[in-house]
Each structure stands twice: as structure tokens, then as C-alpha cells.
Amino acid sequence: MTRFDAGLFREGGSWLHVSRGLGTSVQPVRVGVPREIAVLTLVPDVASAAAS
Question: What is the pTM of this model?
Fold first, then answer.
């Protein structure tokens, strides 16, 4: 379907995180995939901030 199915992806200068979800919806959309809760810690890019 798409190459961005689950996980962390880098595309150009952008980041994309795709979660598998909790699996608690009434209509299951991700059959056979374990549920997941992601914890993302965002930190500033010091090199980019210094260049600005």
C-alpha cells in the first residue's frame, strides 16, 4: 500500500513517524500488527539553530 507503513522515516529535511496505534478502535484497520504506544523525545538541532 505505502512504504510508510510503520516506524520512523526521513524524507529530505523532514521526519515522519507512523504509529501502529493502540488497536482499540471498533473497526480494526491493522490486522495482524501488534499495538504500539510511541514515546517521542524532541530535541533541538543545535547545529541548525546555530546556523540560523
Answer: 0.52
Per-residue pLDDT tens digits for 1-52: 677 878 889 988 888 888 876 655 566 566 677 777 888 898 888 776 666 6
d(CA 44, CA 51): 13
Write b or e for each residue in 29-50: b if 16 or more Cβ atoms lie within 10 A of its Cβ, otherwise e.
eeeeeeeeeeeeeeeeeeeeee
4 grid coordinates: 510508510
